[in-house]
From TrEMBL:
AMP binds at K412, G413, A414, G415, T416, G440. (6S)-NADPHX binds at G136, T137, G138, I139, T140, S141, Y142, D165, A266, G323, H375, D441. This is Bifunctional NAD(P)H-hydrate repair enzyme. Catalyzes the dehydration of the S-form of NAD(P)HX at the expense of ADP, which is converted to AMP. Together with NAD(P)HX epimerase, which catalyzes the epimerization of the S- and R-forms, the enzyme allows the repair of both epimers of NAD(P)HX, a damaged form of NAD(P)H that is a result of enzymatic or heat-dependent hydration. It comes from Alteromonas confluentis. SUPFAM superfamilies: Ribokinase-like, YjeF N-terminal domain-like. Homotetramer. Keywords: ATP-binding, Isomerase, Lyase, Metal-binding, Multifunctional enzyme, NAD, NADP, Nucleotide-binding, Potassium. PANTHER family: ATP-DEPENDENT (S)-NAD(P)H-HYDRATE DEHYDRATASE (PTHR12592:SF0), ATP-DEPENDENT (S)-NAD(P)H-HYDRATE DEHYDRATASE FAMILY MEMBER (PTHR12592).
Length: 499
């Protein structure tokens, strides 16, 4: 049986920004260093990433704010200056003297002959690289206009950006833009990875995410409790070899339900993905007009448009929703499936229109062993909120969805979130090339196949999402993101699931 390795590394754990602020001083003390030492390490780490990104860039523009984020920026500026770079440091209030560790970093920059200038687009045009040290993790309200103007100018330019800890203007916990947000090429985050950097708009804004524990990771991990975990393919052992003395029934009987008139492709993608993910037998219940389209070219699928009750009795696991629709036929099929699975409990995956129909009849059914796979729009309907609400607080609404339906919720999108009411995981893999018709249908088939093969609900959700997203990454590495179609994922999924 598949299981995850014990993931003790902080590079796979997420911590809310306030947890880092609360515990970093004690973690530094327990590690035998001062907070200013952490600032020096942070600035050095940022400069190292700048060199990695653009080693031949000679002109740096470091834009600083007023807190510890600015202190990291001053240290990065010093390191660049010491390396022979031409460095311009700009601040919203150039004459403001900072206090504490940030003040010490500022003083060292000035003592080294550095200047603090007013930001201008002329300086931006000269720069080969921008270091964003304006706003750190402490900001939770909409940013001031003077910062917004600088952010707009930086985003409008083609100059690469390295952000310190979090892109300025991004809520570190939710990934929500606070009015304006830097679109970084690289974000170097410290001590603990903040959840807002891993999902939704935050994943887009931070670019490549680089983590540095600044040498206090072990002490910090003993003080703070992670809010979620990142998932990548290396955390899984794989499913292992099959027993020699086994047969098709050993690996589950999966029923895929959907494919209304005109939408046969969705249930075909889902059911074929299930076959490629190792399900022993896959039967499809679909609309009478869709049977030929679903079965054509894939004789391994058993396709029917009648005797739904018989098909449900046969099945050990059910996927319902891809191409189901919301008309009278769809409602009748949905009702039959849900009533059967209430009286004869078996693992289920509810996707696409099944989620919309569930929203209409949420109080009519109690689901015991189910994975829900909404995108933001479907989650919004399930919870009675707006899509913008969901995208602004993806972690919160994934948890609400899991709690309301007592299910494992897979909230799809950039940085897909898995929540089981108690714990949260985020997929590290995935790319925009997967934003294509049918990709979610393939995921539902993978999840159904893993459940049919006996994996627990949570392991199936975590592993299925990871394999699906990593398959997309592998294809993008081979062929690029544009032009990827859902059925391209089949072979890549098959290879991963056999590793």
């Amino acid at each position: 049986m598949l299981d995850t390795k014990l993931a003790t590394s902080l590079s796979h754990k997420l911590f809310r920004a306030e947890q880092v602020r609360e515990h970093e001083r004690k973690a530094a003390e327990d590690s035998g260093c001062e907070l200013f030492t952490l600032m020096e390490r942070a600035g050095t780490s940022v400069f190292r990433q700048c060199q990695s990104l653009l080693p031949n860039t000679d002109v740096f523009l470091v834009v600083v704010g007023q807190g510890n984020n600015a202190g990291d920026g001053y240290i990065a500026a010093l390191k660049a200056k010491d390396a022979g770079k031409q460095v311009h440091v700009c601040a919203v209030e150039p004459h403001r003297i900072l206090e504490g560790d940030a003040g010490e970093a500022q003083r060292r920059w000035l003592d080294a002959g550095g200047k603090i200038e007013v930001f201008s687009e002329e300086l931006l045009a000269k720069a080969g690289l921008v270091v964003d040290a304006m706003l750190g993790t402490g900001i939770t309200s909409y940013i001031r206009n003077e910062f917004a103007d600088i952010i707009d100018a930086i985003n409008a330019s083609d100059t690469p950006v390295v952000s310190i800890d979090v892109p300025s203007g991004l809520d570190a916990n939710t990934g929500q833009s606070l009015g304006r947000c830097i679109e970084a090429d690289v974000t170097v985050t410290f001590v603990g990875i903040k959840p807002g950097l891993t999902t939704g708009a935050g994943k887009q804004s931070c670019g490549k995410l680089v983590y540095d524990d600044l040498g206090i990771g072990k002490a910090f991990a003993e003080l703070a409790r992670s809010s979620a975990s990142l998932l990548d393919i290396e955390q899984f052992r794989g499913m292992g070899p099959r027993a020699v003395h086994s047969h098709k029934g050993t690996y589950g009987r999966l029923l895929c339900v959907g494919g209304n008139k005109g939408t046969a492709g969705a249930i075909r993608l889902s059911s074929e993905a299930a076959l490629r993910s190792g399900a022993g037998m896959v039967r499809v219940f679909t609309h009478e007009t869709s049977t030929i389209q679903v079965s054509a070219g894939r004789p391994e699928l058993m396709v029917t448009d009648s005797d739904l009750e018989d098909a449900l009795k046969w099945a050990t696991c059910v996927v319902i929703g891809p191409g189901l629709g919301q008309d009278d036929w769809a409602e009748s099929v949905f009702t039959t499936v849900m009533k059967h699975c209430q009286t004869h409990p078996k693992p289920m995956v509810l996707d696409a229109d099944a989620l919309n129909l569930l929203n209409r009849a949420a109080t009519a059914y109690t689901i015991n062993d189910c994975i829900l796979t909404p995108h933001a729009g479907e989650a919004a309907r399930l919870l009675g909120v707006s899509v913008d609400d969901v995208e602004a607080e993806r972690f919160n609404y994934a948890r609400q969805c899991a709690q309301r339906y007592h299910a494992t919720c897979v909230l799809k999108g950039a940085g897909t979130i898995i929540d089981n009411e108690r714990k949260t995981w985020v997929s590290k893999h995935g790319n925009p090339g997967m934003a294509t018709a049918g990709s979610g249908d393939v995921l539902s088939g993978i999840l159904g196949a893993l459940l049919a093969q006996g994996l627990s609900r949570d392991i199936a959700a975590k592993y299925g999402v990871t394999v699906h997203a990593k398959a997309g990454d592998d294809l993008a590495d081979l062929y690029g993101q544009r032009g990827m179609i859902a059925s391209d994922l089949f072979d890549a999924v098959r290879m991963l699931i056999n590793q």
